[in-house]
Amino acid sequence: MTTTPELPVIPDTVAVDRALTERAVTSADMLTGVLAAATLDVLGQPTKLPTVLWPDVPQEVVTAIYEHGLRVGYRAGRIVSAPAWEPQALDRLRTALADAGYQAMARRVAVTSSHGRHRADTEQDIARGEHE
Questions:
Q1: Cα-Cα-Cα-Cα dihedral of 79, 82, 88, 92, to 10°?
Q2: Which residue, 71, 102, 113, 114, could crosslink 87 as a Cys pair with Cβ 3.0–4.6 Å?
Q3: Alpha-carbon gap, residue 87 to 117, rounded angstroms
Q4: For residues 113 and 107, what is the distance between their CA atoms, to the nearest angstrom?
Q5: Residues 90 and 117 sit within 8 Å (Cβ to Cβ)
Q6: Per-block average pLDDT, block size 10, for the chain (132 residues)?
Q7: Is 35:51 a contact under the CB 8 Å cutoff?
Q8: What is the largest CA-CA distance in the chain?
Q9: In degrees rounded to 5, what are phi and psi of residue 3?
Q10: Which pLDDT score, from 0 to 100, does residue 121 have?
């Protein structure tokens, strides 16, 4: 009896793409954490972090910007922890950002919003280029 040689397994391109993309994102998240920790280590205290962004801006202005960022962060935490996830509200904000020319921010909001949708809806968005 002769044996038939095994044919090579052709990988599922979509699955490989997804797995490698997730690996890249995980690596990027890891590097982002290392950079954030190193930045704080160099500066010594969190209150000095905004001075890295605006070294030539007066301290009282940097403090006002920093405090505004804290309020935004608090609001973001409230949005994420809300028991009723509302992708429609995020879509409205995404549209407003895109219409105002803030394309990168709009794409990030689209990613967040898509997590509240059915997977098929998200794949349709990706096909239309509305999701990064």
A1: -20
A2: 113
A3: 7
A4: 10
A5: no
A6: 74 83 84 84 85 87 88 83 68 88 84 61 50 45
A7: no
A8: 86
A9: -100, 145
A10: 43
- Half-sphere exposure (Cβ direction) of 38: Cα atoms closer than 13 Å: 6
Q: Which amino acid is at 67?
A: E
Identity of the residue numbered 128: R
Distance CA 64, CA 69 (A): 9
* Euclidean distance between CA atoms 47 and 5, whole angstroms: 66
In this prediction, residue 118 carries a pLDDT of 42
pTM exceeds cut of 0.85: no
Tokens of 23: 């690996």
- The residue length of the chain stands at 132
Q: Kindly state the tokens that stand for 3.
A: 């044996």
What SS3 state is found at 35?
Answer: helix
